[in-house]
Design goal:
42% of the residues lie in helices and 29% in strands. The protein contains four helices and six strands; from the N terminus they run E-H-E-E-E-H-H-E-H-E. The strands form two sheets. A three-stranded antiparallel β-sheet has the order 1-3-2, with helices on one face. A three-stranded antiparallel β-sheet has the order 5-4-6. Helix 2 packs across helix 3 (91-104). The longest helix is centred in the first third of the chain and has 17 residues, at 11-27. The protein is elongated.
Length: 142
C-alpha cells in the first residue's frame, strides 16, 4: 500500500469479500466507489473498487465565562467561600477575585462549557439564596 486510505480490490478475486465488506465499510465510515471495468461510465459491473476513509470533524464546544457581580450586602467572606467551594480556588485566588469584584463590580470565576457554566451559576445562586445573600452569578459567551 502507498500509505493513503485507499484500497484497490480486484472484482474477480474478491467479489464475495467486497459484497460482505460493503456493509462493514459503511458501518466503519468508509466510502466505496466503484471504477468502471471497461473505462466507460455506467457500464454495470466494475473491475475494481476504491475504498476511502472519511474523516469526521468534531467542533470544539463554545466556552462561557462565569462572572460574579458586586452588591453592597453580601459579605466578602461569603464570596470567598463560594469561590473556594464551587470553583475550586485557593484562598489567595478567591481573595484576589473577591477584591476584583469589590473594586470593579464584576469578576471572572472561570471559563467552562455551556452545561458546566450553567450548573455552576445555578449552584451559586441557590447557595446564596439559601444563606439569604443577594449575590448574583451570571454567564456570558467567551
Amino acid at each position: 500500500m502507498d500509505g493513503r486510505s485507499e484500497l484497490m480490490m480486484d472484482d474477480a478475486d474478491k467479489a464475495g469479500v467486497r459484497k460482505a465488506g460493503d456493509r462493514e465499510a459503511v458501518a466503519s465510515g468508509l466510502r466505496l466507489a466503484r471504477a468502471p471495468r471497461d473505462g466507460k461510465e455506467g457500464s454495470g459491473n466494475s473491475g475494481t473498487a476504491v475504498i476511502t476513509r472519511t474523516k469526521t470533524q468534531t467542533k470544539k464546544p463554545n466556552l462561557y465565562r462565569v462572572l460574579l457581580l458586586n452588591d453592597d450586602y453580601t459579605p466578602m467572606e461569603f464570596v470567598i467561600h463560594v469561590l473556594e467551594r464551587f470553583f475550586n480556588k485557593t484562598r489567595d485566588e478567591a481573595t484576589q477575585i473577591m477584591l476584583h469584584v469589590h473594586h470593579n463590580g464584576v469578576g471572572e470565576c472561570g471559563v467552562f462549557t455551556y452545561e458546566v457554566a450553567e450548573t455552576k451559576v445555578t449552584n451559586v445562586m441557590d447557595f446564596a439564596r439559601k444563606h439569604s445573600h443577594p449575590l448574583q452569578c451570571v454567564m456570558e459567551k467567551n
